[in-house]
Amino acid sequence: MGESNGPRDLGTSGPAVLPSGPRVLLMHVSTHLGHQQASRAIGQTVQRLYPQAHVTSVDASQYASRLVRWAIAQSYLSLIRHQPDVWEYLYDNPTVHRRIQWLRTLLHHYHAANLGRLLETVRPDVIACTQAYPCGIAAHFKRVHQVSIPLVGVLTDYAPHLYWFHDDVDVYVVPSEEVKQRFLARGVETSRIRVLGIPIDLRFLEQVDRAALAREFGLDLADPIILIMGGGSGFGPLREIVMNLDRLPHPCQFIVVAGRNLALHHWLMRQRFRHRIVSFGYIRMIPQLMDLATLLISKPGGLTTSEALAKRLPLVMVNPIPGQEAYNARYLLAQGAAVQANSAETVRQTVRDLLDDPERIEALRRRIDEVARPMASVDIARLLVSLVEQARVSA
Predict the structure, then answer these.
(1) Sheet holding 23-28, edge to edge
(2) CATH among 3.40.50.2000, 3.40.50.300, 3.30.420.40, 3.30.870.10 for 23-200+374-394
(3) What is the per-residue pLDDT across 13-71, written as a single tens digit (0 to 9) for each?
(4) Taken in order 301, 295, 230, 281, is the CA torsion positive or negative?
(5) What is the pTM (predicted TM-score) of this model?
């Protein structure tokens, strides 16, 4: 692999260095890998910018019993895979939100004791949540116990659902002006909203030696390289997508990230294709692979789309999960920063149209430059430390 050119300049401006390290508590839910990755990106950036900081990252689902954790994880995955129309009905539905209010309140009370013990142990100066569930728990705890610790909700998709809205959240970090307007329409004061973007790993701000990396994988930079991903689980009809794209007449190449879908990875390794195909399982080289790629084909998860935007990589969206990913797709389409193929069968024509029209690819990159917020992790880290500084001054 080639030498990195190093990260973009992170600067040194921001809050003053505190006399004792700020204690930052990050909360996520591991069922949703993107939320966990966003939390990790924030924590790593805080510690990089403020080495004296103390960062604790917690999976809020661990507060539930094993049975409840299993039931939530299995029901979510089952609905997404087998009954997406049911998930679409449940997601962000005001009637459902209202009818289960009693259950959410009960769960918040159930978790209060565990959260109280955590706060006694960590003694955080600020709490940031990258998923609505722990944000609701922390907001409920603040209200009931009159706790003054600043609480920050960090959205990882391009639309808020109803479970994010709480009076006791001090600041919401949102990815776009459009999402800010949604919060304003719900009565959230503009002083409580920051448009900073979706936090991603700082490795996506680095560049690699593309020529050396292409040689390592036996790829030719003279021909288009198409990166195909289905998230960490290798979710979606990736096999059908690869088979359809292999019929393209163009002299292109493919990188397929199967994630934890070992059956797909092994199938790819056994097959013979017309085009050059490089297959990976679960890897941490996504920033480097995005640097190589001409196009990305993927579900429009919040983290994946933000990473692609940071890399100026045009995205062909396929099979968005109803709910959050469908909102992401609509946002990116409205911004002219991505295109969508409605099925595994139509993705080949969509990609062919793009490869036949290089100017359209460049137009997508120009729109990406206007909507991308690659420094989100840095800006969020500075926000958290500035809230700590403000709280200490006013204490």
Answers:
(1) 54-59, 23-28, 126-129, 151-154, 171-174, 193-195
(2) 3.40.50.2000
(3) 455 455 578 999 999 987 557 889 999 999 999 999 999 999 999 988 776 555 555 55
(4) negative
(5) 0.85
